[in-house]
Every structure is written in structure tokens, then in C-alpha cells.
């Protein structure tokens, strides 16, 4: 069994309490009591409850942004970059589903510098996806009649909704769901030229016969 650090215990406790009672329905005292911490332990890790909420948001947003940058640096084509970004984006709903649930429930309470920092990372993520799509349009792999900005927002919207319905015990793994997303998007975006690339096949459902 994993042994959680004090900071991890505080975060895990806050996730449960925020989801159940809402951000303003939970006090630092409650978090301290439920996590088996102390006021000193809490404030050693977080300056305030607001910083704790920021941390919960920042964990998964930083993850998807870092993974997207890795995909851009490590993959050589717009197709492979976009598919790798979607794979890591989808995976976050398995890794950080409680964080994301609290984010959507309580994001309005994130204000000031904390809100600005989160929004800046979200904007960077969106712009990187737009850049990959535009590069695919420029080299003839992606359809130019589909606006890159709208396509990027459609991708983000489609994958984001995963938090509402994904269940670990469901019939499909998070990896299988990512493959389905990639299949849908590639069939929507690829030109005839783009579809002829050998690498495309590895991202489509027909390369994963066990997925139904």
C-alpha cells in the first residue's frame, strides 16, 4: 500500500471534502482533522486554502501541458504529434479524475494570480494544439477548410467531457478510449495525402482489433 506524504494526505482529503461539500463548505480545520495533520503541517505545505485549490488545478493542467510539449519535441510529424497529445490528454482523466472533478465544480473560486496562472497554462496548451493543426494544414496532411482554432476547441471539448462518464471499471481502458478519439479526429482531419502516411495506421481503430 502506498504511503502518502503529509502534503499528499492533505490534497487527497481536500479532494474528497471539496467534491462532497464544495470549496466554501470546507474549512482548513476540517481538512486538518480529516487528514490527520495539524495547522502547522497544513501551512507548511500551503499558505492558504486558496493555494491548495490552485495546487489541485495546477497538477493536472501542468501534466497535460508538459506532455504536449514532450509530444511536440519527440514526434516528427503533425499527425504523430497530435495523436500523442490526445493520448496524454485522455490519460489525465484516469490519473487525475478527482482533481478534474473538483476543478469543474470549484474553478469559479480560483481568483487573482492563481486564476491567471491557470488560464495562462490553458492558453498555452490550446495554442500548441492550434500550432500542430496549422502545421499539418501547411504540409498537406490536414484539411485546410476546417479552421484550426475551432478544431482545437472541438478536441479540447470532446476530450474534456471524459471526466463525466469515464469509469476505471468500465469496458474500455483509457488507452482504448484515446485510440477511439484519435480515430475520430484523423478521419475528420486527414486529407487524401495525409491518409496515405504509413504512421497513420498505428493510430486508427483497425490497428487495435480488440477494441469494440
From TrEMBL:
> Can the keyword Transmembrane be found in this entry's annotation?
no
Q: What Pfam families does this protein map onto?
A: TetR_C_24, TetR_N
All copies of the HTH tetR-type domain together span: 4-64
| Keyword DNA-binding tagged | yes
PROSITE patterns tied to this protein:
HTH_TETR_2
Span of the signal peptide: none
Ranges of the DNA-binding region feature? 27-46
Q: Which InterPro entries does this entry report, sorted A to Z? A: Homeodomain-like_sf (IPR009057), HTH-type_Tx_Regulator (IPR050624), HTH_TetR (IPR001647), KstR2_TetR_C (IPR041490), Tet_transcr_reg_TetR-rel_C_sf (IPR036271)
List GO molecular-function terms, semicolon-separated: DNA binding
Keywords in alphabetical order: DNA-binding, Repressor
- Protein name according to UniProt: TetR family transcriptional regulator
What is the organism field in this record?
Answer: Mesobacillus campisalis
Its organism's taxonomic lineage begins at: Bacteria, Bacillati, Bacillota, Bacilli, Bacillales
